[in-house]
Sequence to fold (528 residues):
Amino acid sequence: MRHRVDFLVLGSGAAGLSFALQVAEYGSVAVITKQSAVESNTTYAQGGIAAVMDSADSIETHVQDTLRAGAGLCDESVVRVIIEEGPQQIRQLVDGGATFSSESGKLHLGREGGHTANRIVHAADATGKVIELSLLERVKKHANIQLCEYHFAVELLTNHHLGQHVSKVRPDIDCFGAYVYHIESDRVDTWLAKVTMLATGGAGQVYLHTTNPGVATGDGVAMAYRAKARIANMEFVQFHPTSLYHEDARSFLISEAVRGEGAYLLNGAGHRFMPDYDSRAELAPRDVVARAIDDQLKARGENHVWLDITHRPAELIHSRFPNISAKCLEYGIDITKDHIPVVPAAHYFCGGVHTDVDGRTSINRLMASGEVACTGLHGANRLASNSLLEALVVGKRSAKTSIGVASDNTFSEDVPDWDDSSTENPAEWILISHNRDELRRVMWDYVGIVRSELRLERAARRTRFLFEETEAFYRKSKVSAGLCELRNMIAVAYLVVQSAAIRRESRGLHYMTDYPEMVEKEGRLTLI
Ligand code: FAD
Ligand code: SIN
Fold:
């Protein structure tokens, strides 16, 4: 089947929905999302959105905190634009129906690592859910937007699909829409668009342990890479220091805001170890805290460390962290009395599809926003709670750009429909789950918090094999969501390993035992 929309939005998190709402005033919009619309990293965001909302704070200190965390790789002009637009963005969310925690009629502002002021606007400990639901409600009501759940974007349509040879990044590639697999009817449709917005989020699932939900398989970065878009800084993977360590708990985050309220990190001997590593102790930036925990675990041969907030009043803990308290209680942990077992887990990809601050990628008519993109805001390490802000600000700015692009373009009817005549339903599905598990373990063991050339070489060899085996399988098989995700995860793994191998230094989130220092001349983007 063929569909035509002015704006094709891939992904229904903060980035995709905020973009859709803006462009819907100027044309028809389809939001394509591979599961239920609410399933996204946005929905699981806990801590909040960083924005300067207090007269004791300033744009300049937020900018400086962001630049410091980014370890020399932020694009300062992008940082300034996004941070300056923060307060206005918060006001628009409130006007759009989002309710944030307040105290005496003023927004309550939390604190997180790397910030030198209280500036985290939050809705208790479920900020993302409040934002996602308020955006989604407006999207569902909008007459110009069709929301297509259980639709899986498989491939971006470019000049390649017109039979032209496209072997590398070049300025004359156009995006004409996407092939989208309609899961229910088991059919791949052609969606033609004047502008395509890639808002498919992150890729935490590439690692064995992650805070991300199952949808975060890096599909957007992989599709853009195959379409020959410029990809940047994929080595900078942020590991959140504190995900819940419990055999029955998958991917549950214990927000940094808990440390912001004064929680301590203790090792198995009950020693508060963070002051031994950094004067900012538990509120040092995430890379510092995650590495310190990794060091403690390796030195002491333990599986987890402990987070202790029991010294804070029980009422405060319950009102500030109702969801975290309730979730921990499900596992028999009363956080007002018990220490919480925690470990680091893959959390956020600072790299992605290279864009400017208005969401333009290196491919014409293809925009990208949110975690899939690399605008230059985060550099080598993202400051906590800056990503929701980025998704919303860039979502809005790219909408402005896209309206002009859409009016200058028409649908490219020459794109052929999907052809799967020489494929069949595979007999050996086990390959998909086996290779997915193996990939995630390889990435965790060899491309994690602490890396070395030897580990990266091992990872490169193993991912190469998984790539060859999976591609051979893909070529003869009918499309399925699981198979597409596996291909995409392998592509992301390849990009992370290659980018990590190129960077011969330690900077921000990328720590190499062979090159433990930061090297001035390496202070550039890694572009693939
Ligand atoms: P997402 O919200 O992940 O949305 C991506 C969408 O794309 C999803 O709907 C997904 O299903 C869809 N999709 C993916 N692939 C396809 C495909 N092939 N076809 C169709 N649809 C597809 N950031 C903060 O700033 N503050 C926080 O407090 C915070 N807390 C966090 C807590 C957790 C547990 C996690 C996981 C992240 C947190 N983050 C936080 C990061 C932040 O949530 C994300 O970076 C941000 O929400 C990304 O928004 P997005 O719209 O780019 O992507
Ligand atoms: C958290 O609540 O700790 C997550 C904040 C973030 O990832 O920005």
